[in-house]
Amino acid sequence: MKSYLQLENGVIFEGNAFGKIEDTVGEVVFNTGMTGYQELMTDPSYYGQIVTMTYPLIGNYGINLEDDQSDSPKIKGLIVREKCDYPNNFRCELDLDGYLKYNNIMGLEGIDTRALTKVIRETGTLKGLMTHRRLPQSKLMDILNEYDNSDAVRKVGTKESYTIKGSGKHIAVIDFGIKNNILESFKNKGLKITVFPSNASADEVIGVNPNGIFLSNGPGDPKDYPDIIENVKIMIDKKPTIGICLGHQLIALALGGDTGKLAFGHRGCNHPVKDIKKDIVYITSQNHGYVVNKVPQDMEVTHISLNDKTIEGLRHITKPILTVQFHPEASPGPDDAHGVFDEFMELL
Amino acid sequence: MPKLNDIKKVLVVGSGPIVIGQAAEFDYSGAQACQGLMEEGVQVVLINSNPATIMTDKEMAHKVYIEPINTETIEKIIRLEKPDSILPGMGGQTGLNITLELHDKGILEKYNVKVIGTSIDSIKKGEDRELFKRLMEEINQPVIESKTIATIKEALVYAEEIGYPVVVRPAYTLGGSGGGIAEDTNELIEIASKGLHLSRVGQVLIEKSIKGWKEIEYEVMRDAKGNCITVCNMENIDPVGIHTGDSIVVAPSQTLSDKEYQMLRKASLDIIRAIEIKGGCNVQLALHPKSFEYAVIEINPRVSRSSALASKATGYPIAKVAAKIALGFSLDEIENAVTKKTFACFEPSLDYVVVKIPKWPFDKFYGADRKLGTKMMATGEVMAIGNNLESALLKGIRSLELKQYSLDHKGVKKYSLHELKEKVMYPNDERLFYLAEMLRRGYRVQKLSEETGMDEFFINKIKFIVEEEEKLKLTKVENLTSDRLKGLKQKGFSDKGIADLIGVTPNEIYELRKMWGINTVYKMVDTCAGEFEAMSPYYYSTYDNEDEVAVSNRDKIMVIGSGPIRIGQGIEFDYCSVHCVKALRNLGLETIIVNNNPETVSTDFNVSDKLYFEPLTEEDTYNIIEKEKPKGVILQFGGQTAIKLAKFFDEKNVTILGTSPKDIDAAEDREKFEELLEELDIKRPKGKGIWTLEEGLDIARELSYPILVRPSYVLGGQGMEICHDDSELKYYLSDAFSKDKKNPILVDKYLDGREIEVDAICDGEEVLIPGIMEHLERAGVHSGDSISIYPPQNVPQNIKDTILRYTKLIAIKLNVKGMINIQFIEYKGDLYIIEVNPRSSRTVPYISKVTGVPIIEVATRVMLGEKLRDLPYGVGIYQETNLISVKVPVFSTEKLPKVEASLGPEMRSTGEVLGVSDTLLGAMYKGLIAAGMDLSHRKRKILVTLRPKDKEEFKDIAIKMNDMGYDFLATQNTAKYLKSIGIEVEVVKKIGEGTPNILDTIRTGKIDMVFNSPTKGNDSKRDGFMIRRTAIESSVELMTSLDKARAIVDILYSNIQGKDLRLYEISQYDKA
């Protein structure tokens, strides 16, 4: 069915709908990864976003049940140049269209995704509506203005705490929408893991007496979560603390740093990050729209983006606190920076 | 890390002549490397024997030596130039092998020259199969079960152990030559014996066959700090079993999930870390289609054909970055030339699909064994970019110049489904069309995937195209809707493809498109999928919404490139296109180049102001013209590919700079051309077109033998032969008429004279002949296959005067503006014209270099209206140099089974080398050595078979050989003759006379040289053909031309020594 992507700046793209054909609103972002569409659709950090894939052929190897990064896809919509109707791979269990349909997510194909990407690049991330009937601009704005993603972490993280057995040290994980492969990476280190919901109190977390605390990735603007930041302030004083992505931003804010919104974010599998101390560059998987733009007083920058020089990793000068903005757990993307997990282990 | 400041002068080794498996990609990477080094203020000394390259232009390096690539020459250059470093990884396998040899002989150490980039130890770890295997085991990378063996017996034992089929790969060879898949003992004996012979170290690898696995390549880079990146990965549509050079390849991979992609990426990076690559490297992997099992096939620790493709596919300049890494820069210090904001330390992201399709020489070599396998046979390739797979594939197909505009191939209709199935399982160059035909007849996708090992994903894409084609066949043009047409255009269907299927003219489809506003838009190749603003003026077409090309107000000229490299249209034409663009840019014009060959310099986006990577068809080029509205289009430098467009552009009122289409036609149309010569009172060999055998015999009597016969509808000497008597003529004609009854056969008197060739520039009033070239071989050998000598050694002044007069008459009569190439025969004091090409030719780079006349620049300026008299090179015949230059052709015949190996009127060479010296003998010596001939002074064993008419002429050659103490072997009749002139000779049996016969004798490897004067070639059943093939396949020096044999024997007899010959740097050519 002929359908549209209507952007808040008035730009309209026309394509054909697939998946569940139902109006959907979100923040329109692009991802430059050439593989890994399934991982990113199920990555909770994308909650509330309409994702445009810059690679034109999506769905080639279908969907399998193994590569999910959470229990279901979390994106609001998917925009592709061409979806694959005849996927093939030995693990392929579903096709893209059926998968989105079942999960009530709208897709659009036949879009000039490069043109859309350039719009986002030039104007920054925009809100947009995916719809099968075009709306007048004023109506569109009414709908877009209603869009609110400020309690995203509560929606995608676990509601109850739970424990994953392990023979090694004990790590407390605060789940803001954690990707499966982060948990997998901890499991592979033999850790015992207690996962807490995002609203767990510091006392609760410290109460299980973990060797360290991990703040996970997750969706949204870290400044939308002042309660969590307060909690983090307490925790980082008590226990070694590590963080990835949103976790990294929250720790920075808790220690007096600041964050801001990137024009169009870092989303893809090809982001070069320099480990300053080791003087080596990793190609990393990234997915963030916000960034730490002021380093807290007692922290030093350990990693920077080679593309735009933004902060990609921090370490506390005296305390056992270590954070990275990128995704060392990969999935999708390269695991060049997997060594970060070893550094985490040293802190525990 | 900053630049290593002890590197001040670097010796760069080129790859030598173009052969199958080592082609123009190394001119591109070599030129990029030189540029990268010079940008950092390093002195560059270059050696490459191939004059038809951009990298051997004098401005590409501080010192350029077009000399044989061997240790003797390089040692001399090192003594002379005192480089502190050598960069081996840019000259393909040739560059690596020669550097290893220089190292092993202690030459590098002696002169304190260090290897920069990937080290000798690392090269050995990557190249030596045993070392490589051991290293892979250490780092837990799976390799295919295999063993290096040095004897047939060992091979058989090991094959029993791992089970057939097994793959045979010789160590240290190009393009997998000498390898193959053996299904049983007999095949193994055959393939392994060949492989052992061809390997530089007498070893072959026997490995377990993993036929049917996916073949995936990663182009990776590493710097000295240990930063590693993947530039691109590529998936072969044809699975393991077909050489990647002969496979259709897509970038990026299409059927790999992120898990598989990252698993293989990690493997590739782990490997280059372990090997300690410093620069670029190609990693080939096999992936089981039904599991995560994979195996490392091999690596190439250097730039390669695949790295050139990856550079063009992504916009990431691998060779240039590799050169900077060799200087000590790290990836995070090297700027990304496309964005100018980011660094070379990132991984390109593509937002399009790239398809590469090989170009095979089987249209020229129709007798060849076309079965594809582990041995590469393609001479060139095309690349196409689209934003879906179908469009990239269809663009690729029409770029091949097979007259195919869709997958609907008339030639495959005749086969039954059984035959088609056989043909897709044992694939040849036309597999894609067989496969499409099977789908057309309802064959199941899944089954086809099982039979071929091709992923269902790809077969479904092909099926989509086939289904649309079938629908079009049932469509009337009035029922075609705007939406449907737009959909087809988006999927890459050409106007002509659609028109042919519907049954209308392409123009009707074009007009519908215009009416409905369905126009191409162009997208940029920017390495980053649009994430950052980019500066690369590198575009491909789509039928999308947004057009990214900004058309400037400047005057612009569009240059049409020459497409894929094939026999007869090689790298020389790319050289011309690049020089034309350079000349235009120097004149302040905006330049646009259109081409589809990823190997070349012309498709480097730095060369022109804008590069359109597009098929060179009428529609695709005209779309760009409509967009850019260039002031003029230049066709003269793009070979026949570009010239073919002249008529169409003329109809569309596109301004063609230079010679007009009407005049081009007058030169190419035989009848019109004859009239013209008659009018000018210029002689040509007498001849006539005939339709029957009887007519043929009559005209032959009238002309008297020998006669030259050829079909009237082909170019480039295809199907051309010389007949010496009625029986040969009858044989030829009956065969020719059975193939094609609709066209006449042309019969000409064959003049056994001296062949002379000129490339001239005409401004409409005057001509400039930069140099006259004399061919060593008498007429009858295709000019591209002849040894060409400049300045001419045996052409008297009066003939030179006549050459100038005729050239001027013809060029002016044809209103030539720009280049013209004319071939003459001097026969008994008279000058005859045999061919005129109103365009640039393959000798232009060679003659430009040796005379110092920038021919293309002059021609380009003339085309824009300047007069020769106002340019610094004047008119008439340009002053001859004192040095003598010899261009020697190089063949790849050993790589093409069942292809005729004798010299004749059909062109067969793939490349060329240059020899320059102060004497003819010296120049010949250098040229032949550079072409790979062994001219060492030692006793030789020569096997001779002569046809009766050559015996007398061979006498002096034989006597000289005898004087040098050579041993002779000959068949009965030749032996009798040799004995009659007092030469001792051992008689060998002819093929039908029992064993061991002549072929067995050649195969023993005890023969150094075979001289066989061909009777009638091209018939694989003939004795001569088999003798020649056996010689070629056993790597025995083969001579088939008396003239060439005499020249070689003269050199050997003269006792000339390489070490005594002076080297000449290119700037000395016109000064010495």
TrEMBL record, chain A:
Protein name: Carbamoyl phosphate synthase small chain
NCBIfam families for the chain: CPSaseIIsmall (TIGR01368), PRK12838.1 (NF009475)
InterPro entries: Anth_synth/Amidotransfase, CarbamoylP_synth_ssu, CarbamoylP_synth_ssu_N, CarbP_synth_ssu_N_sf, Class_I_gatase-like, CPSase_GATase1, GATASE
Gene name for this UniProt entry: carA
Any one GO BP annotation for this protein: 'de novo' pyrimidine nucleobase biosynthetic process
CDD domains per record: GATase1_CPSase
Family the entry assigns: Belongs to the CarA family.
HAMAP family, sorted: CPSase_S_chain
Domain Carbamoyl-phosphate synthase small subunit N-terminal as annotated: residue spans: 1-131
Automatic annotation (TrEMBL), chain B:
Recorded metabolic or biological pathway in which this protein acts: Amino-acid biosynthesis; L-arginine biosynthesis; carbamoyl phosphate from bicarbonate: step 1/1; Pyrimidine metabolism; UMP biosynthesis via de novo pathway; (S)-dihydroorotate from bicarbonate: step 1/3
Binding site for Mn(2+) 2: 298, 300
Entry note: cofactor: Binds 4 Mg(2+) or Mn(2+) ions per subunit.
EC number: 6.3.4.16, 6.3.5.5
Binding residue positions for Mg(2+) 2: 298, 300
UniProt cross-references to Pfam families, sorted A to Z: CPSase_L_D1 (PF25596), CPSase_L_D2 (PF02786), CPSase_L_D3 (PF02787), MGS (PF02142)
Entry GO terms, CC: cytoplasm
Binding site for Mn(2+) 1: 284, 298
Domain named MGS-like: residues: 933-1072
Binding-site residues, Mg(2+) 1: 284, 298
Binding residue positions for Mg(2+) 3: 823, 835
Sequence similarity: Belongs to the CarB family.
Name of protein: Carbamoyl phosphate synthase large chain
Source organism per UniProt: Alkalibaculum sporogenes
